[in-house]
Amino acid sequence: MEVFYTTKSAFDPDFAPDKNIKDQVAKTRVLVIGAGGLGCEILKNLVMNGFRAIDVIDMDTIELSNLNRQFLFRDVDIGKAKAITAAAFVNSRVGEVCVTPIQDKDKQFYRQFNLVICGLDSIEARRWVSGMFIDLVDDQDPTTMIPIIDGGTEGFRGQSRIILPSLSACHECSSGMHSSKKTYPICTISNTPRLPEHCIEYASVILWPKEFGEQKVDTDNIADINWILENAVNYSKKFGISGIDFSLVLGVLKNIVPAIASTNAIIAASCVNEAIKLVSGCNPFLDNYMLYVGDTGLYSHTFTLEKNPDCFVCGNAKASIEIPKSTKLEEFIEIIKDRFQLKKPSLRTDKNIYMQAPPTLELKCRPNLEKALFELFESGNSVTVTDSTLTTSILLTVDFAQVRSQTNP
Ligand SMILES: [Zn+2]
């Protein structure tokens, strides 16, 4: 495999690749997290650039819908584990074992890597990776800092970034940047719908609760999807809107953005180029965020994302929140879910405020949901928040907001 840097022309003219760099690249222990659309591209690019000590982790199995872009997989692989199949494909192609599939291991296992490259599609997974590698850093020992290169795509948009855990902005430092579900104003969807998406939103947000009350739309239930489809189509006819079908309904309800193979290719390529530079030191690497915007014309933008000193994962400050003391616990949980992007947070002070599990404890705490915060703890108390999406807990100081009538008696 003498394909590595066969020509100098693509590089800085001063850059003379030598055997040292090739050796350096070949022996770098790389962990690839995700073997999906981005992961397949990342693995391919890594081996074609001479990386030979790669571990790959992915919990998913291969589905038919993956095959249009996840090119390491074939029809016969449907149902098999992505990591195992991808590794086998690459190894057979290269003719030696370059890629080793692994299962999730304990934290210490991850210390052996020199570099992590993520090709993930969820915010939760990124948060977990970033949190774990910050946890591994020992300030006294610089070798414990393992750089993360993180790629992500959404339709014609993508980004790659470099996180130097505890040194540069972590995933949480920028959590305000992550897009949440696209929503449409109620007045638009009720009065002046123009898009098929507006009609689907109308059916799910307005019509569904009228018919089914509190019960939520189950996006894995075909009957539910069909109900939305039928009602959205009926509604759309009044406005002369067409183009609503089952997959669009599913896309809107699940907020699915189509995966585009070529966007994955662009982002994965940029991630692996940064990996070469990081490992070899041959050229300066990305500092530290690159946006690729292909859905409104085309532009790209790189910038340095600053570390947030108040970040509750990598910063010094503890998180704090100011909130009226009469806020019910139930509402408070919704507020912190939104603020910290949590799934099912549990809260405790010196006693359990609300625990999501085990079921007996949840049942015992449940009456608290109806209580106002001041009945549960005092202003200025610290509440420990834990959640499955966090690698550590958040120590949240809760101050009761001053109400005007109290400050001006
Ligand atoms: Zn941070």
Descriptive notes:
This protein has 409 residues and is α/β, with parallel strands linked by helices. The chain folds into three domains: 19-179 and 259-303, NAD(P)-binding Rossmann-like Domain (Rossmann fold, 3-Layer(aba) Sandwich); 186-254, Arc Repressor Mutant, subunit A; 319-407, Ubiquitin-like 2 activating enzyme e1b. Chain:  B, domain 3 (Structural Genomics Hypothetical 15.5 Kd Protein In mrcA-pckA Intergenic Region, Chain A, Roll), CATH 3.10.290.20. Helix 2 (37-48) packs across helix 9 and helix 6 (196-212) crosses helix 7 (222-238). Strand 2 (53-57), helix 3 (82-94) and strand 3 (99-102) form a beta-alpha-beta unit. Residues 1-13 and 405-409 have low confidence and may be disordered. The protein has twelve helices and 13 strands. The chain has helices at residues 19-27, 37-48, 82-94, 123-135, 186-191, 196-212, 222-238, 246-254, 261-280, 329-340, 359-365, 404-407, and strands at residues 29-33, 53-57, 99-102, 115-119, 148-154, 157-163, 289-293, 299-303, 319-323, 346-348, 352-354, 381-386, 394-400. Strands 3-2-1-4-5-6-7-8 form an eight-stranded mixed beta sheet, sandwiched between helices. Bound molecules: zinc ion.
